[in-house]
Amino acid sequence: MKRFFIICIAFLLALSAVGISERNEVSMIGEGESYQAFPLKGVKIGIDPGHQRKSNNQQEAVAPGSSETKAKVSSGTSGVSTGIPEYISVLEISFMLRDLLCDLGAEVKMTRETHDVDISNQERAIMMNEWGADIVIRVHLNGYNDHSVHGMGMYVRKTGAYAEESAYLGKLMLTEMEKLTQAKNQGVFKRDTYTGLNWSEVPCVLAELGYMSNYEEDEKLNDPEYRMLLVKGMVNGIIEYVYDMGVL
Ligand SMILES: [Zn+2]
Question: How far does the centroid of ligand 1 lie from the alpha carbon of residue 76, in Å?
Answer without folding.
Answer: 5
